[in-house]
What we know:
Layout: E1 8-9, E2 12-15, H1 19-30, E3 35-38, H2 46-49, H3 81-94, E4 99-100, E5 107-111, E6 114-119, E7 122-126, E8 128-132, E9 138-139, E10 153-156, E11 171-174, H4 178-187, E12 193-196, H5 210-228, H6 234-246, H7 255-261, E13 264-266, E14 269-273, E15 276-279, E16 289-292, E17 296-297, E18 330-333, H8 349-365
Parallel strand pairs: 1-7, 2-3, 2-8, 3-4, 8-18, 10-16, 11-12, 11-16, 12-13
Antiparallel strand pairs: 5-6, 6-7, 9-17, 14-15
Helix pairs in contact: 1-8
Amino acid sequence: MNMTNKAERIETIVIGGGQAGLAVGYHLARRGLPFRILEANERIGDSWRNRWDSLRLFTPARFNKLPGMAFPGPQGAFPTKDETADYLEAYAARFDLPVELGARVDRLSRDGERFTVSAGDRRYEADNVVVAMATFQVPSVPRFASQLDRDVVQMHSSAYCNPSQLQDGGVLIVGAGNSGAEIGLDVVGRHQTWVSGRGVGHVPFRIETPLGRNLLVPFVLRFLYHRVMTIDTPMGRRMRPKVLSHGGPLVRVKPGDLSDAGVERVPRTAGVREGLPVVGDGRLLDVANVIWATGYRPGFSWIDLPIFADENGSMEPKHVRGIVPDMPGLYFVGLFFLYAMSSGLLGGVGRDAEYVVRHLASRVDNGSKAS
């Protein structure tokens, strides 16, 4: 196929082999539907392995199960990022899911009645495509980042692993959300550290205390995030735009934890002067390192289909619970708040996957004529 570039015909292509893609694969396999999962990384779980070393989930293991398989180990423990990656790899092996590794999709289009998927020199034709990826894929940094002095080490939080990547001197972390706060605690033991940005609020309890772990976290996950904060409730519909634009509150780290550790909170970073960052109160910070914990933007420019609010594929696709009404056969799973606040979590993505696969199966049963 690679030599001739001839398209391989597959009934359903799932783009993405992370938690969303594997959950979709589980439900497709249960229905006996032929499919293939295309994963850009060379190993299942690498999107988790490549994050910073000290990262742990905010949810105890018993709430992190994908359909059909519990998360291993102590059920009250908060898994590390490597344990999460290994769980995904074991999940794919247990259910013998057909994952094609090293297949980074660079174009999705439609040719007549079928979709065309390109991944380098590999091409596929499919009746159905499930884009199983998170809403935010491409690291986002402000334009003025390029004005920093070239001697300043700078990186996005997606490239940060541990303090050994930093040079001697102060560290400014731009972004005061969960990533910025946790990285701040990670580096302050070796560097004078500032965290810049507006406050995002915080969960008003300690998730790792017995009360938090056994009562409050289950209440938030099972009731608020999974059942109340959905597109079917007035509260969920009201909160969804705010959460999508501003992110969620601090979960593990509390504002007092930063000051107690010696991290200084400063206003948002407003620009660069004399090669150094300037914060909102006019101060010039003499730092040697900048970590941009400034989030991500959607990475759907490779989707060559008229399903976005703008023409560049930079906005959220137009969908209803992952079903794209104007493009029969196209689905999304894994988007942040696709249906509920839990949609992006290991314990919540299975419901979205099952819903989408049920609709997809009805297309197959009706000869791909359902809309």
